[in-house]
From TrEMBL, chain A:
GO biological process, one term: transmembrane transport
InterPro entries, A to Z: MetI-like (IPR000515), MetI-like_sf (IPR035906)
Location of the protein in the cell: Cell membrane
Transmembrane residue ranges: 21-39, 85-106, 118-138, 150-170, 191-214, 256-278
Recorded family membership: Belongs to the binding-protein-dependent transport system permease family.
GO cellular component, one term: plasma membrane
Family matches, as Pfam families: BPD_transp_1 (PF00528)
UniProt topology in membrane: Multi-pass membrane protein
UniProt keywords, alphabetically: Cell membrane, Membrane, Transmembrane, Transmembrane helix, Transport
Residues in ABC transmembrane type-1 domain copies: 81-277
Record's protein name: Carbohydrate ABC transporter permease
Record keyword DNA-binding present: no
Keyword Cell cycle among UniProt keywords: no
TrEMBL record, chain B:
PANTHER family assigned to the protein according to its UniProt record, in alphabetical order: BLL4140 PROTEIN, DIACETYLCHITOBIOSE UPTAKE SYSTEM PERMEASE PROTEIN DASB
Membrane among keywords: yes
Protein name: Sugar ABC transporter permease
Membrane-topology annotation of the record: Multi-pass membrane protein
GO cellular component, one term: plasma membrane
Record family assignment: Belongs to the binding-protein-dependent transport system permease family.
Amino acid sequence: MTATKLNLKRPKGKRSTILTVALLAVTAYFLLPLVWLIIASTKSSADLFSTFGFWFSGDFAFFDNLQQTLTYDNGVFLRWMGNTILYAVAAAGGGALLAALAGYGFAKYRFKGNRAMFMGVLGAVMVPTTALAIPTYLLFSEIGLADTPWAIILPSLVNPFGLFLMRVYAEQAVPDSLLEAARIDGASEARIFFQVTLRLLAPGFATVLLFALVHTWNNYFLPLIMLNDPELYPITVGLARWQGQAAAAGGASGDLVSLVVTGSMLSIIPLVIAFLYLQRYWQSGLVAGAVKQ
Amino acid sequence: MTTTSNAAQAKPVTGRRRPLAGYLFVAPFMLVFAAMFVVPLLYAAYFSLFREQLVGGTIFVGFENYARAFGDAELWSGVARVGMFFLLQVPLMLVAALVFALVLDTGLARLSRVARLGIFVPYAVPGVIATLMWGFLYGPDFGPFAQIADMFGTAAPDFLGPNLMLGSLANIVFWEFTGYNMVILFAALRAVPTELYEAASVDGAGQWRTAWSIKIPSLRPALMVCLIFSIIGAFQLFNEPNLMASLAPTVIDSAYTPNLYAYNLAFVGQEYNYAAAVSFVLGLVILTGSYAFMFVTNRRSRS
């Protein structure tokens, strides 16, 4: 487990002011669009077009925008948010569990086809998203699963990167001697997994969970293809739809633009918080993955 | 990548010979993988061999769709465009990510924790929202760049015009993924054994020398992973141009990138059979590109 802890004891030289300034300038570039988004969400739609983008305007219209975003079209925004949470949690939770089980199986058991199956799954990342999404859509249409939540959740359960990380992680974090001891005590293989292994895998599991969460939360292509019913849209497709309507209506739809801005801001808050809050876990999980790339 | 194959051979162990339990652990994943990956791909391979006709229904045409794809100028101009996008965007992104990771790892800058999180935060922003935001920022009417240029009495460059569009898209992808690559490289640097640095400093190596002779070589496997994912990502470019199309419909046509082309063939033109063939040809391009890169870099490292 020592390798998985963040190595904080590094020889530290003299701090450099030039490097600090350069690094902060770089950071500013990465934060600039988000700053713009936060500022824009406080403006009325008239001010959005007429005042300078990187500074606040006189009117503080954030709560108006918030109220409009949440109630527009019978509160469809909240519905989209709920859908996104449902899809992301189901797909990421299920996918991480599948990856943990299989990663542990591939790392700690010897059986025929172990390596071939593992490499087969890893090779799958090369397949273009359209090559997979077109036949999946056609098959799901045949069996009536297209335009249902399952059309988003089921394909998102497959997580090759998660499998890779869990396998690497299980190799280092689960000592064979511990498994042997548990077996001598008469524990079944399933019990060993759920009572011993899963706890040891926790940081790796959190990493896979978080990255899978982001992947499903941010997914646009799959729901765009699979879903027709706006009630089932996740936030990404919903906001893109509003944006499309705003662009199609030209200047006549100023209000819709502030809805897109405010909705965008609201929808990134949960993930940013999750990443900041869980950073200790995912960073140590990534270090562990990096040891054995 | 070399250690992966070593790890796969696994040390000889006693008591791990419980093949049945092993199969049961990997079974749920492999079943979902088979249903959601293998079956659809086989199905697509099958129906890419057919053609739908207005008269006479669906007929078997063998590799005719593939022959058409290989001679399809629209597809190859899209491939050339994402190839250019790759050459423009990926080296810049990976070099930036590498430099940021090395700077953060030295601990020579103040506030490096803030910088690390700030650079990484865009990864948590959905690509759709990143594109919407940058679309507003690029905008010629009320985008801040246009406003600043206006203050100085000039016009901002036309970020959404035909000349700059590819660069504007590259900037969005750079913004989204530099932090992600940086975090992977930073994690790999943290995993370098400290003894190596101690040995280097005993030998009198400075920061530059340590970075060049110890850190960058030990990042090779992580860089390879980042590179392969970037090749795949670049050639599959879809979300950003798909959304930009509503802001610049004349610049981004239905075949702007190969994935956009396959999508429009399938879901606008209802040409599922041909779209499947097109997406397989794109898969072949990605596979060839990735292997070519691995081959070239492996040979260079040996010589």
